[in-house]
Amino acid sequence: MTAPDIALASRFQDAFAAAFGEEYRDADPIIRPGRFSDFQCNAAMGLAKKLGQKPRDIAAQIVEHLDLTGIASAPEIAGPGFLNTTLSTEWIAGETAAIAADERLGAAVPASPDTVVIDYSAPNVAKEMHVGHLRTTVVGDALARTLEFLGHRVIRQNHIGDWGTPFGMLIEHLLDVGEDSADAKLLETDPNAFYQAARQKFDGDEAFATRARARVATLQSGDEQTLEIWGRLVDLSKQYFHRIYSTLDVTLTDNDLAGESSYNDLLQQTCDDLKDAGIARVSDGALCVFPDGFTGRDEQPLPLIIQKSDGGFGYATTDLAAIRHRVRTLGATRIAYVVGTAQELHFQMIFQTAREAGWLPESVDAQHVKIGSVLGEDGKILRTRSGSSLRLMDLLQEGTAKARGVIDELRPDLPEDEREQIAQMIGIGGIKYADLSTAHDSDYTFDLDRMLALQGNTAPYLQYAVARIRSIRRRAAEASGADGAAVDSAATDSAAAPAAAPRVVDDAERALALQLLEFGPTATAVAADYAPHRMAAYLFDLAQAFMGFYEHCPILKEEDAEVRTGRLALADLTESVLVTGLDLLGVSAPERM
Ligand code: ARG
């Protein structure tokens, strides 16, 4: 199974090799959807330059050697040397039937599966997850789902901030209020409030501050009792993360936790090894690395501090230990860090240091998947009126409440509990989708009304398209009684009976089928480029193609049973692709809407 552009590309490349020699086989055929045909190949211009001939002559030679039998019409030369070709409708029908019978919906199996470590979410213990963490969480989760769907081995790593100097004051505060107190409960419900209370005491109470500092030292020395209290503090925080993850329908579990603390025992060795290798040296009392290619003011080499003069380690040391662990122990062949854009320099310096140390061989790809900011209507980082960062849970609840209004208006006839369920899907789906449909490194404005709109590139628009197809199928089943039931079960359970092939004859059927064939290549591109917004854009195009099809090709009113069944099969395939694509983004779709 091949998407049309990929299938055409290989035929064109055969022609390049035949016409101009093997060395031209790999020339990019530059196949684009055409304005006057299905596809246009724009390679003649580039090849003409290389071969020193006129583009139209090159085009003619390509045509002479091109065999599109079984796929498309012989191409026509247009303008300066464009090659226009129209696909054979039978070929499209055959490919469409093939993806309908394939549980991967045409997604190619990777030639050699990668082991991909995805570092995402990574909130900080005893701190509220802010909207920035929303983005790293949903983008990372969509990538994990997509790579896994394609057959790669995915290792999720939730690099939570669970270590460092604030833990002295947090532990002392927990001891002060008592673990079973209402104040301690805040860790599970409103971690920022817990943190602020500890902070206030630290700033205002000298004795407390002294205790807190001493506690950091006992914690870092590995004192068992202190570690035990620390562990309980982290556990309470995990409850909070879990609530957010389950509300968001995110696949992260406790097994994926690999917080900063888990590298603690490796930090000294990490520093020593870098020092022994001559990569790290002491500068102004601190142990630093100066990775190649980074300069600060006055063109001076830029240091990355890995051990402070007091012996303490920092964020960078932990990431160096982590990257070594990921390659050496976890066997990563690709590592994706889904983290805010602000940390770009940090990761570049970490990657370069790890390369120099030989911990990140050339064969392993490391990428910082940069996450842009979520803005308020004023164009600044989203905050509450009082200026503090917004509580993620509040935002999610507001989304669901608003979505309840949308569904109440749309389907007042549905039972109360069903509307509540749908509101959850629309509200959470709407927020996640708005995030995922934006390129991960661009900023976007948080606007619930737009996110929950039934029109435009939104989750509710796609969810509505799915619900609509499901309703068509139910009505088709009702209309044809027992027969309909057979149609229904054939569509949902392919083992029951051989399903009818999707009908690809009329223009709108053909246009829809062409879109359906792009699902597999889109998923592959999302995984290769870490770009979930491509899946979102694709699903939106697909839903629009479906609306066009449904407008022109009646299903329920169609008299001819064979045509009706074929169209129903095409609608069913559309539903599968929409639902699967949405699922790769972590968005679910309701039965009715
Ligand atoms: N906890 C950090 C933050 O909130 C993000 C950690 C990202 N991952 C990493 N390996 N550094 O900014």
List the helices and strands and how they pair.
Blueprint: H1 4-20, E1 31-33, E2 39-41, H2 43-51, H3 55-65, E3 76-78, E4 82-85, H4 89-100, E5 115-119, H5 131-150, E6 153-157, H6 166-177, H7 182-189, H8 191-204, H9 206-220, H10 224-248, H11 267-276, E7 280-283, E8 286-289, E9 304-307, H12 315-328, E10 334-340, H13 344-357, E11 365-371, E12 374-375, H14 392-410, H15 416-436, E13 444-445, H16 448-451, H17 459-479, H18 481-492, H19 507-516, H20 519-529, H21 532-552, H22 561-584
Parallel strand pairs: 5-6, 5-10, 10-11, 12-13
Antiparallel strand pairs: 1-2, 2-4, 3-4, 7-8, 8-9
Bound molecules: arginine.
Notes on the protein architecture:
This protein has 593 residues and is of the alpha/beta class. Among the domains are: 4-87, Gyrase A, domain 2 (2-Layer Sandwich); 393-593, Isoleucyl-tRNA Synthetase, Domain 1. The chain is 55% helix and 9% strand. The protein is built from 22 helices and 13 strands. The strands form four sheets. It has a four-stranded antiparallel beta sheet, with helices on one face. A four-stranded parallel beta sheet has the order 6-5-10-11, with helices on both faces. A three-stranded antiparallel beta sheet has the order 7-8-9. A hairpin with a 2-residue loop joins strand 7 and strand 8 (286-289). The structure holds arginine.
Estimated radius of gyration: 28 Å
Low-confidence stretches: 484-491
Mean pLDDT: 93
CATH class category of the domain at 393-593: Mainly Alpha
Strand content: 5-15%
Identify every distinct bound molecule in the structure, by name, code or SMILES: arginine
What's the CATH H-level homologous superfamily of the domain at 393-593? Isoleucyl-tRNA Synthetase, Domain 1
> What structural class is derived from the secondary structure elements?
alpha/beta
| Main sheet record | 4 strands, antiparallel
Major sheet strand order: 1-2-4-3
> CATH topology of the domain at 393-593, what is it called?
Isoleucyl-tRNA Synthetase, Domain 1
Percent in helix: 40-55%
Give the termini separation: 33 Å
CATH architecture descriptor text of the domain at 393-593:
Orthogonal Bundle
Let me know the number of strands: 13
Overall 3D shape: globular
Helical stretch tally: 22
Organism: Helcobacillus massiliensis
Subcellular location: Cytoplasm
Domain Arginyl tRNA synthetase N-terminal: 6-87
Motif ('HIGH' region): 123-133
